[in-house]
Design goal:
The complex is a heterodimer of chains A (375) and B (304). With 375 residues, chain A is an alpha/beta fold. Chain A has helices spanning 11-25, 37-53, 69-81, 149-158, 176-183, 214-223, 231-237, 258-265, 267-276, 280-286, 305-314, 319-330, 336-347, 365-374; strands at residues 29-32, 57-62, 86-91, 95-98, 107-110, 164-166, 187-189, 192-194, 197-200, 203-206. In chain A, helix 11 (305-314) packs parallel to helix 13 (336-347). The chains are: A alpha/beta (375), B alpha/beta (304).
């Protein structure tokens, strides 16, 4: 098990040292940005190093279209902060995103051709608007789901062999699983084993902020007076827990709850989103309700999660996706514990199985048996 | 706290176990007089307020507020090395990494002076004592165990776990039949409900017979709620003095809260011939034994 040791170097100094190392070892460096706080801090640090060395770095943003306007503004700010040292790589091409808010329109095709009047905002004049990779050799992870978010990233990365992709992923504190994922697959660069990176096709993904925690990021942003997305301030004022303070896509399985407060935070974005895709009004009203998307409470007239799951399967509006769910559930245990998670997948329209199911015996069953015998 | 060859070296003050309100005030006064303190911040659960009067300013922060942003960020800025942080009865959860403890550990990084009071060393197992050690040592390490502790840690310990006595109550055949029927009904309909509902609900069944005995017996009683209308009754939330137990609460935290607020060291309880009553009584006995075990382990590993 990895051991945490507290030395004399701050995480900021360690990150700067890592960046110096990256600049020493790679000719092409690309920072992935999302408009969030982590990538903001990383981009700011990387730009400082690029400026010091008189070099230019790529700044890559895969535009999911359905993001906060503040996130798009933040990305634009980062890409124009040091224009002499930045190669903007704002990718606005068609790809599919899961829409957790609707069962009838389970996917959004971002930047779909012919729907430009419905797009959340017009494309940037200087963005990359056509896939820069060879369509003939384009890779797709799952043909059934179509060309998705990760496919766009993978294909873009293939266009830059040997490049170092810097990602603002943090693995300290909040997620031991993420820490394990980062540290167990170190990458070798020029014979050197790097524990804060992983292999990515022909290039490498490096995580210079991997040991930063939530507070380290905000301390950096505050002390260096870096501009950040105003959504964080609104979330802070509303008392969002740290784990829910995020500014990514508004409609996928883990983020759709952001829609509940969207009319308050960004009324214009909400207005456009309503017109852009189905299910938004429902998610806005019921996103936090225990009986709907959270699936923590049964609807009044159903007595078990199994009954609820069977009802949802029987009345599923999309036969093809209903069959995907039915096939997956047939391989899983038939108990209330698993059934509740299956209901959650159904109401989130998670046919891609992104919100994983713990296929195990109900942890409460042993306790019920104990009470039955003892009392 | 740092780990040296598997033993834990502690830069701590003293953990105070089993003290009453007056003794706590004395310990704080001593610290304020002897230390370089210009401000006292008292963190306390609503059930256990601690009034202090000192020449230095005192701020009281309720347990529930510890995690609120409006307190968290302000206190992080305001707590300085000269602030004495008093943690009164902080053992509120057996989850060593719960958000409240994490926030407290953040506060503790800002000061070098803290004082920890807890009536009991543990909530569910002797290992819970390590939560108090984490707080008293401002530790970032949460993986050390009770057996890792060294003699550097100082503990002022009074074992005040209650001794349990019982008054047996015989129920009639109708109540016993009702109990069996109720048990089947609850278990068959458990659905998505919390399984702990089973003993909680069953414990109510013999209530009327126990209430009759309580009325005949007289004195002060404590129970879950006032539905039985027994004279001299108070709920666990209200009870501030030692009382006889009409029915047990399910949560160990509520039980520890009652014992702390009342100062009870001997507890007499009504126990009917329904199995759930015996189960609750034995559970309370085991809890007291667990407290003794925790004290024994602390003495063994630490030395007071």
């Amino acid at each position: 098990m990895p051991t945490q040791r507290y030395g004399t170097t701050s995480v900021l100094e360690a990150a700067r040292a890592r960046l110096r190392w990256v600049f020493d070892h790679f000719d092409e460096i690309i920072v992935s940005v999302s408009g969030g706080k982590d990538s903001t801090a990383l981009a700011h640090l990387a730009l400082a190093e690029a400026k010091r060395r008189g070099r230019r770095i790529g700044m890559f943003f895969l535009d999911e279209e359905v993001v906060y306007q503040s996130s798009a503004d933040q990305v634009e700010y980062l890409m124009t902060l040091e224009p002499d040292h930045t190669i903007p790589m704002w990718l606005q091409v068609e790809f599919r995103l899961t829409n957790a808010t609707s069962t009838t329109e389970g996917q959004l095709i971002c930047w779909e051709a012919g729907k430009h009047k419905l797009w959340m905002r017009p494309k940037k004049a200087w963005s990359i608007q056509h896939a820069p990779w060879d369509r003939a050799t384009e890779t797709v992870r799952d043909r059934r789901k179509g060309f998705g978010f990760y496919d766009a990233i993978e294909n873009f990365e293939r266009c830059h062999p040997g490049a170092a992709f810097l990602v603002g992923l943090r693995a300290a504190g909040e997620s031991p699983n993420r820490w394990r994922a980062v540290s167990k697959n170190p990458v070798t660069v020029d014979g050197e084993l790097v524990y804060w990176g992983t292999k990515k096709g022909n290039g490498v993904a490096l995580y210079p902020l991997y040991d930063w925690n939530f507070h380290d990021v905000w301390k950096y942003i505050s002390e260096h007076e870096v501009r950040y997305s105003g959504i964080y301030d609104m979330q802070f004022r509303k008392g969002y827990p740290i784990t829910e303070m995020r500014v990514s896509s508004l409609i996928h399985e883990r983020a759709f709850k952001s829609i509940c407060d969207l009319p308050e935070f960004e009324p214009k974005t909400y207005d456009r989103l309503l017109k852009r895709i189905k299910g938004i009004a429902l998610a806005q009203e019921h996103g936090r309700k225990a009986q709907l998307f959270r699936a923590t409470k049964l609807p009044k007239n159903l007595r078990s999660w199994r009954a609820y799951r069977d009802h949802l399967l029987a009345t599923h509006q999309d036969r093809e996706r209903g069959a995907i769910f039915a096939k997956r559930f047939a391989r899983q245990l038939d108990n209330e514990y698993v059934a509740r998670q299956q209901v959650r997948q159904l109401v989130l329209n998670d046919y891609e199985n992104n919100v994983a199911i713990d296929n195990a015996e109900d942890p409460r069953a042993a306790l019920v048996r104990y009470y039955d015998e003892e009392l | 706290m740092a780990s040296v060859r598997g033993r834990v070296v502690v830069e701590a003050s003293v953990i105070h176990l089993g003290l009453g309100g007056e003794e706590k005030r004395e310990r704080i006064s001593e610290r304020v007089r002897s230390g370089d303190v210009d401000r006292v911040v008292v963190v306390y659960p609503r059930r256990h307020p601690l009034d202090l009067e000192f020449s230095v300013p005192v701020e009281y922060v309720e347990w529930d507020d510890v995690i609120r942003y409006v307190f968290f960020y302000r206190l992080l800025q305001e707590i300085t090395p000269r602030t004495l942080l008093v943690l009164n009865e902080p053992l509120r959860s057996a989850e060593r990494s719960c958000l409240h403890y994490n926030c407290l550990r953040n506060y503790l990084t800002r000061t070098e002076q803290q004082i920890v009071f807890s009536r009991f060393p543990a909530l569910e197992s002797p290992e819970d004592f390590m939560i108090l050690v984490d707080l008293d040592t401002r530790s970032r390490w949460r993986r050390s165990r009770l057996s890792d502790l060294g003699e550097q840690l100082r503990v002022e310990a009074a074992d005040v776990a209650p001794t349990m006595f019982r008054i047996d109550v015989v129920t009639d055949a109708k109540t016993r039949a009702q109990y069996e029927a109720e048990k089947r009904r609850i278990i068959d309909n458990i659905g998505a409900k919390d399984p702990h509902t089973i003993p909680r609900q069953l414990h109510l069944v013999g209530g009327k017979q126990k209430a009759d005995v309580a009325r005949a017996h007289g004195g002060l009683w404590v129970g879950r709620n006032a539905r039985l209308k027994v004279p001299g009754f108070a709920t666990y939330e209200q009870a501030l003095e030692p009382r006889q137990v009409l029915e047990f609460c399910h949560s160990f935290r509520d039980w520890a809260d009652y014992l702390t607020a009342s100062g009870a060291t001997e507890v007499t309880s009504l126990v009917s011939d329904l199995k759930v009553d015996a189960w609750y009584f034995e559970r309370a006995q085991r809890w007291s034994e667990m407290q003794h075990d925790a004290h024994a382990a602390i003495r063994h590993h630490v030395g007071s």
